[in-house]
Amino acid sequence: MKKPGEFPFTRGVYSDMYRKRLWTMRQYSGFTTAEESNQRYRFLLDQGVTGLSVAFDLPTQIGYDSDHAMAEGEVGRVGVPISTTKDIATLFKDIPLDQVSTSMTINATAAIMLSLYIVNAERQGISADKLRGTIQNDILKEYVARGTYIFPPGPSMRLVTDVFDFCATHVPNWNTISISGYHIREAGSTAAQELAFTLANGIAYVQAAIDCGLDPNIFGARLSFFFNAHNDFLTEIAKFRAARRMWAVIMKERFGVTNQKAQLCRFHTQTGGSTLTAKQIDNNIIRTTVQAMSAILGGTQSLHTNSKDEALALPTDETARIALRTQQIIAHESGIPHHPDPFGGSYVVEALTDELEDEALALIATIDQMGGSVKAIEKGWMQNEISRSAYEYQKTVDSQETIVVGINKFKSDEKTETDLLTINTEQVEQQRSAVSLFKKSRDNMMVVTKLDALTKAAGTSDNLMPFIIQCVQVDCTLGEIADALRINFGEHSDTF
C-alpha cells in the first residue's frame, strides 16, 4: 500500500499530515457591516482560529454596491457588504494580512474582491507577494447550484484565468481558485456526484487556462478544492481519499503535469449546512462533530465547523465558539492527528473509495461526451441530475427509510429557546449612506477615466486584473467595476 505523500496521494497529500502541522481552523463569518464583521474576526482570532473565512452579502456577490436599488433589503444579511476601499480597510482593521491566511467566498466578483484586498494590503505597507489565502473564484458551480453569477460563461471563465495568470507572477502564495463541491452537495447531489461534478469543473478550468497559454505545472500548484462533509461518516472519508487519487491521475495523465505540487488535491471542508435542523438544535453539535471527524480522517487541509443555530440565523459569538472548540477538541484531545489516514487498509473504506471513484469517473466520462462541464451546464444536465438526487433523497426521508433525528423520528414538542443573532438595520442604513458619501468625496474624473479603460480592455484579450486594480486604486467601487464589465460582457440568464 502506498504511503501518505506518495502518488496518487490517496492517503494524504503530505507524508506526516497533521503530525507536523494541524489543518487550518477557519470559521466562516460576515454580517451587517465591515465594522461588525471585523469585531467577529478579531473575536475568533482571540479564540484560536488560524485562518479567516469571509462571507459576503448577496449584493456584493453579484456586483451591486450597498446603495444600489437592487441591493435594498439584502445588505449585510448573509454576509458582509463590501463596496469600497474604505469597507475593505475597515473589515481587516488591526488584522496583520501578512500573517493571517484569508479565504474569501466570492465568485462572480472574485477578481474585483481580490484587487480590493491587494490594494488594501499595499496601503498597509504589505506587498502582494506576502499575501496568503484563497479566493473561491469558482463560477461554474454558480451556474450549477448556487446562482450568484453575473456574466455569461465565456467572459466569466476569462476572469478566472486572468486571476490564475496575474497571481502566478504577483501573488505567488495565493490559491487562485477553490473548486467547490460544497454547494453542489448542498443543492442535493450524492457524494459521487459532488466528486464528479467538482472534478469535471476542475478539468474545465485547467483546460481553459492551458488554452490561454498558461502552464499547468505552474498554475496547477495554486489550485484548491472545497468539499462538503455530510452525514455518512465512512462514505465521506472515502470521498476525500478518492478525490485526491482522481485529481492526481487527471493532472498527470490528462494534462501531462509533472510538478508533484500541481498534482495535489488540497482542499477545504465545511460541515453540511443542509444537514442542520431547526428543531432540537443541540443535535446539530453532534452532527457537526461527526462530519468534522470525517473531514479530518479524510485528510482535509482546512476546516469550518457549522454552528448549531445556523438553521435559524447567523451564528452568535457563543455558538461560533462552540463550533471552533469542536475542532480544537478533535485536534488536541482525540489523538487522531497522530496517525495519517488511520483508516487506510480498512476493507470498508478502501472498497468505498474504489466504488466512489468508479461512479464518479463514469459521470465524468458522460460529461466529456457532452463536450465538458460548460456544455453540460448549458444543457442543464448537471442541474437536472442534482435535482433528481435531491428528490430521491427527500422521498427516503418522507418514508422514514432515512431517519433524521428530531424531524421524522424521536420528535419532541419542546420549543427551541436560544438567543439568535439579529441584523442591526440602523447600521445597514448607515452603510448605504456611507457608500453614497464615499462616491462624492473622491476624484470622479479619474474614476470615469479608469472605468472607461477597463471597459475597453474587456473588448481585448488583455489580462483584466491590472485594469481592475487601477480602478480600485482611484477608489472605484465594486459595483462600478462590475458595471464597466457588464457593458462589454452582458449578463447571463439560463436558457435551458
How would you explain this protein's 3D organization?
The chain is of the alpha/beta class and 496 residues long. Helices cover 50% and strands 8% of the residues. It contains 19 helices and 9 strands. It has helices spanning 34-47, 58-61, 85-91, 110-123, 140-146, 153-170, 182-186, 191-211, 216-219, 233-254, 283-297, 317-333, 347-370, 373-378, 381-398, 425-440, 444-458, 465-473, 478-489, and strands at 24-29, 51-55, 101-105, 133-135, 174-175, 177-180, 223-229, 267-271, 302-304. Helix 10 (233-254) links the parallel strand 7 (223-229) and strand 8. Helix 1 packs parallel to helix 12 (317-333) and helix 10 crosses helix 13. It is globular. The mean pLDDT is 96.
Q: Give the biggest sheet.
A: 9 strands, parallel
Strand order of the largest sheet: 5-4-3-2-1-9-8-7-6
Element order, helices and strands? EHEHHEHEHHEEHHHEHEHEHHHHHHHH
Mean pLDDT: 96
SS summary, helix count: 19
What is the CATH architecture descriptor of the largest domain? Alpha-Beta Barrel
- Poorly predicted runs of 5 or more residues: none
Quick take:
With 496 residues, the chain is α/β, with parallel strands linked by helices. It has helices at 34-47, 58-61, 85-91, 110-123, 140-146, 153-170, 182-186, 191-211, 216-219, 233-254, 283-297, 317-333, 347-370, 373-378, 381-398, 425-440, 444-458, 465-473, 478-489; strands spanning 24-29, 51-55, 101-105, 133-135, 174-175, 177-180, 223-229, 267-271, 302-304. It has 2 domains: 17-398, Methylmalonyl-CoA mutase (TIM Barrel, Alpha-Beta Barrel); 425-489.
